[in-house]
Design brief:
- Two copies of one chain form a homodimer.
- Chain A is an alpha/beta fold.
- The first copy, chain A, has one domain (6-445): 3-Layer(aba) Sandwich (Peroxisomal Thiolase, Chain A, domain 1).
- Chain A is 38% helix and 22% strand.
- Chain A is built from 16 helices and 16 strands.
- In chain A, strand 12 and strand 13 (364-372) form a beta hairpin.
- In chain A, helix 3 runs parallel beside helix 4 (96-106) and helix 8 (254-271) crosses helix 10.
- The longest helix of chain A has 23 residues, at 212-234.
- The radius of gyration of chain A is 21 Å and the shape is globular.
- Chains A and B meet through helix 4, strand 5, helix 5, strand 8 and strand 9 of A and helix 4, strand 5, helix 5, strand 8 and strand 9 of B.
- Strand 5 (116-118) of chain A pairs antiparallel with strand 5 of chain B.
- Chains A, B: InterPro entries: HMG_CoA_synt_AS (IPR000590), HMG_CoA_synt_C_dom (IPR013746), HMG_CoA_synth_N (IPR013528), HMG_CoA_synthase_euk (IPR010122), Thiolase-like (IPR016039).
- Chains A, B: Catalyzes the condensation of acetyl-CoA with acetoacetyl-CoA to form HMG-CoA.
- Chains A, B: One of its GO terms (biological process) is acetyl-CoA metabolic process.
- Chains A, B: Residues 181-444 form the Hydroxymethylglutaryl-coenzyme A synthase C-terminal domain.
- Chains A, B: It is an enzyme of class 2 (transferase).
């Protein structure tokens, strides 16, 4: 580990945004008439953030950038690259990045490379990778790079609806001053495939088309492939706890993160049975489960969830709580979970390695390792994620459902004046003022 | 110029694709009942390529990759990065890149970074920039990078319809062997803004929303800003012909390219009146035209189109003919025009510099310089662009209009079996077999 080369470029600052309103999963269970615990225990989710008609992908991305810029006292002219990762498409041609240029133009900076990167929940990670490459290439112009990941995830009424969410994250990259959060060169593994596990072919409808069972096995297969590739690349043969101190996953819902970590342990077991805790040899019966069956074998899953329980608490729990309380923020999920672990652990992380797994349906996936190389106290203590989560307005499922039905009817319509009261938004939040008769969007701020 | 640093990474090979069928602009003029010359002289366009229901963005991108791979005898395992630039969105989540992974998975290579880059016609250039950065960063894994740009441009009946087009281009990047086509480091200038000159907010409709007058002035303003920035960055004070030997532009239609080159000369004139040919001082009356008026001043435009006429023939014509015959292929426009000049000039280009201007509405733009550093004879003689253009099937405007009307009705519908005869496609062309009831697309090949 000590011989590992770190990127010169890294994360200087990070900022998160989520809407001021949310619905409780326990309330949704009652409202939907499902068994108690189906969402809270079955999915492992506590609350779900959602937006009303005042917020869209441009507004939440603008807000998170404004927050970052204000908090860091950044001169917008010091940013040479801005890239957005999102799958919340409100225009098939115009990028969210160009809408964000409004802020930069006001500051007199139009010389900002980068556009939008898109593939489901993976676009933000692609944007991060692009920015890291740019910053250590001859093309770097010496300025900061900014990556914004944001999404609004909504589903039709039915079993997928409680797996929605909303959020955005802005990540500032730089080389000078030396960034505290760096990336381990050569500790990156990628796996891509052509799949239809989750996609959005219904262009005139906000909801995705999901094959629930398939997307879970695609996720786990991608996880396997990335993990095996990463271990090979880094020469790691033992447990995931030898590879990293913490782990952060793209979080469709918490139970999936739980299963994913167990799956890493299953991989560890197959490579080296001594790397897992199995004093009574109870796991040996899973050694010969055919690969294809292993993705759906409930006994196997349960056994490794149990086996990995203590390690999960230590390695994953410090970063898993934000996604449980805002839901799946797609491209923002992984990167806001990184922010969560930074807030949770602060300078305890110095010298520690965080394993990250990014997954986007369709499918694109990468696993990589981040190292906290120097103190992050100021960064982590200024995030105020928990404070803001606790300060949210909890609405009842009827209201949540009404909002989604109203948005469903208005999706892709023009000449719209949003109805939501500005007082329902956080202060200093960019929000939609109107959509004109040809679909141009105009924004204001609380 | 000799002291200029070149990128190590560069273009090893390039391949173009356009549909086998096209419509003549002169025929369209008659069909539309407009004055003779409105499209052929007014727009400067000869023919327009279009696709029927057998081809979509995935099929044309797959075909161009297959062509490149076959021609170069490439092992698909030797490609470590694949990125797509497009604004032809058939899915709001799943990238075209992941659909292309089908080819790579068949060859056993799933370790391929990169997704889709999107902002109107600029996405391909963003993908190229990303690939260049990756290849000269610590993240490069030693393999080739492949960029695919493709689009299908169609417009509602009316004045914009003849500005459609279709095409795709695949560009192979590498460092070893030393690539003949390289990029001048520091000779890149970018300008981005938030505009609504051309956008696609009608998600359930294939056609864009265009403000024709605004998009032309946005294009020219972006051109001004990039050109001025590039001249400053490279220390160039004279004529465009001092900066480069050739120039290639994103080509919405040829007259726009003509105007753009004239605009560069107008810029040259404002900087140094001695850099333009004006023996009788006829241009001096344009010196004090206010900037805002200069974009719409027809006399000014005409004067500089005349002034730049000889230089246009020398610098721009060698690369402007492909776009005149296929129309606007959006992200593929600029990069297939580069292929055109390579075919046209071959090894005459060795040691020459090509100025390139990329524009995507919304808006994102960059100007940069490519250098042909070593012989390209094999590359240029194997493109066969003109041969293929001449071998196309010319259809009448009635048929073209029928196809677009049929596609308009079927846009975003599922359970579709395409009606176009396979014999109408080029041989060895990937094409759509069917769209199933939930929108999954399946392909076959001629």
């Amino acid at each position: 580990m000590e011989g590992v080369r770190l990127s010169e470029a890294g994360i200087l600052a990070i900022e998160t945004y989520f809407p001021r309103q949310c619905v409780r999963q326990a309330d949704l269970e009652k409202f939907d008439g499902v068994s108690s615990g189906k969402y809270t225990i079955g999915l492992g989710q506590d609350e779900m953030a959602f937006v009303d008609d005042r917020e869209d992908i441009v507004s939440i991305c603008t807000t998170v950038v404004r927050r970052l810029v204000a908090k860091q006292g950044l001169d917008l002219g010091s940013i040479g690259r801005l890239e957005v990762g999102t799958e919340t498409i409100i225009d098939k041609s115009k990028s969210v990045k160009t809408a964000l240029m409004d802020l930069f133009c006001q500051a007199g900076n139009t010389d900002v490379e980068g556009v939008d990167s898109t593939n489901a929940c993976y676009g933000g990670t692609a944007a991060v990778f692009n920015t890291l490459s740019w910053m250590e290439s001859p093309w770097w112009d010496g300025r900061y790079g900014l990556v914004v990941c944001g999404d609004i995830a909504v589903y039709e009424r039915g079993p997928a609806r409680p797996t929605g969410g909303a959020g955005a994250v802005a990540i500032l990259f730089g080389i000078n001053p030396q960034p505290p959060i760096r990336f381990e060169i050569n500790a990156r593994a990628t796996h891509m495939e052509h799949t239809y596990d989750f996609f959005k072919p219904r262009l005139g409808c906000e909801y995705p088309t999901v094959n629930g069972a398939e997307t879970l096995s695609c996720y786990l297969r991608a996880l396997d492939r990335c993990y095996q590739r990463l271990k090979k690349r880094t020469g790691s043969t033992g447990s995931v706890s030898d590879l990293a101190d913490y782990a952060v996953f793209h979080a469709p819902f918490n139970k999936m993160v739980r299963k994913s970590f167990a799956r890493l342990r299953y991989n560890d077991y197959l490579t080296d049975s001594a790397s897992v805790v199995d004093p009574q040899g109870k796991l040996s019966r899973f050694r010969d489960v055919p690969l294809a069956d292993s993705y759906t074998d409930k006994e196997l899953e349960k056994a490794f969830v149990n086996e990995s329980s203590d390690l999960y608490k230590k390695m994953v729990e410090p970063g898993d709580w934000l996604a449980k309380r805002i839901g799946n923020a797609y491209t923002a999920s992984l990167w806001s979970s990184l922010a969560a672990i930074l807030e949770e652990k602060g300078d305890e992380l110095v010298g520690k390695r965080i394993l990250m797994f990014s997954y986007g349906s369709g499918l694109a996936s990468s696993m990589f390792i981040v190292r906290v190389a120097s103190p992050i106290g100021k960064l982590s203590s200024s995030l105020f994620i928990k404070d803001r989560l606790d300060a949210r307005r909890i609405v009842d499922p009827e209201h949540f459902t009404d909002v989604l039905e109203r948005k469903e009817k208005k999706y892709c319509t023009f000449s719209v004046e949003p109805a939501q009261e500005l007082a329902e938004l956080w202060p200093q939040t960019t929000c939609l003022e109107r959509i004109d008769d040809i679909g141009r969007r105009f924004y204001t701020s609380t």
